[in-house]
Amino acid sequence: MKKKIALLPVDARPVTRQLPIELAKLADWEVLAPEQADLGFLKQAADVGHLQYWLKETAPKVDGMVLSIDMLLYGGLVPSRIHEQEKEQLNRRLELLKEIREEHPDIQLMVFSSTMRISNNNVNEEEKEYWQTYGTAIWGLSYHTHRFETTGDEADQRRADEWRASIPEDILHDYQATRQINYSMNLELLQLLEGGTIDRIVFPQDDTSEYGWNVQEQAQLSKVIREQHLSKEAVLYPGADEVASTLLTRMIFQLEEQDLPCFYPVSSGMKGYLSSAMYEDRPLMESVKGQIFAIGSRTEDDFAQADIVLGVNVPGIKQGDLALELNMNLVDTNDRNISEWLRRLETYLGRKPVALVDLAYANGADPRMIPELLETISWQDLIGFAAWNTAGNSIGTVVSQAALQWLADRKGMDVKEQKDHQILHRILEDYLYQSIVRKEGRALLGKGEKLHDVITPLFDKKASDFLSHYADGWEVSGIQYPWNRTFEIDFILNKKEEMS
User: Domain limits at 139?
Assistant: First the structure.
């Protein structure tokens, strides 16, 4: 066994490319991926021809491949929403999977392909240009059309007609044509799965809700999966950016022929645990189970039989959004008990490995919980932590990290430094930056000012103060903004002696 896996990520952001690479190191696996510069930039699609060449050259060197179909066909996740490709061209690109299977029949081949999202605003940063004028209207038409078809509520029919009248016919036709092409390619993937070309496929539901054309497409895909008896190897669930990590984790355990650990979830409040996450279509409890299932594992009701305790911090009533400042008064309520929950986790640490996923907010860690966590439990005692972007993103990261750390322990490997590095990086990014610095920095950022001039010194100072208090001996350097915006950050985290 080569102990190498090829990864074609959905784009070049650290969470989609570098994070899976770092996670695999916990189990002593090397992940090969294209260079960041070869993976496009936001709306700029990657050179698909170059990536196809890279995949052909890399296939003989690896035991398995985890491939983003959005990257392989369209040049990235954002380009998959705005492309003008014809189906014939996309089918030719898909032929590469058959070539790899024919030339390397023993290779594990797992792929993921998103169901195209429908953003509910007029922001076109990651959408077609006309989204800045018609985005909300297209979302409204999608939502109310599907809701009327589902519930028969005449009010939805009237709302759908109003939204349709506000959208130029050519724009609506263009948008629906792109959706149809992407959906048809997902059907093609199921044929490849049925024929044995690929071993597993995930259709992540990117920023979904209860109703909409994307939800209809997911239901149609689910129906085809059931009819073709593909349910064991074709799954749909909320997420997108974490899928590479969960598939890599699943592949590593399969290639090593190891049983996965099972998880004992412990939430900080039942009402919030049963509430639906923002940008997802199901309760947080079901998202937790779904991501654990995605790596090939399960939950366990019997504490004694579980391998890992998964602490799940939830909102009191409903998940908030720190980036957009939504539902801010529905999170820290009397419907949860942070102090008692942390005390339970502290007690469990003496008996089982404990990982923690923070789902109180989307787009950042809980500023009420984290300080108390740091005073109650040493972050170094955790085997997993995340609190970034959506619930699915965070859960998938944590269960992957915890499972791979558990595997390393089982094999007698000492990977404490790598594990500590990953957890500390997530605390600095998900808590310090996303929950604190991003908001303060946006308030200070004047028109025309550069992120490096305003936000970098702010984060650098706060990171230095935090590290001196909680992780002396570590330093941050190389701060940058992958897509030149405040939404995400990247930095180098090393021990001080490594930087000398």
Answer: 134-165
